[in-house]
Amino acid sequence: MTMTRNRAPIGTLARTGETCPESGVWKVVGNPSTTAPIARGNRMPPYANKAVVWKLIQYA
Question: Whole-model pTM above 0.85?
Answer without folding.
Answer: yes
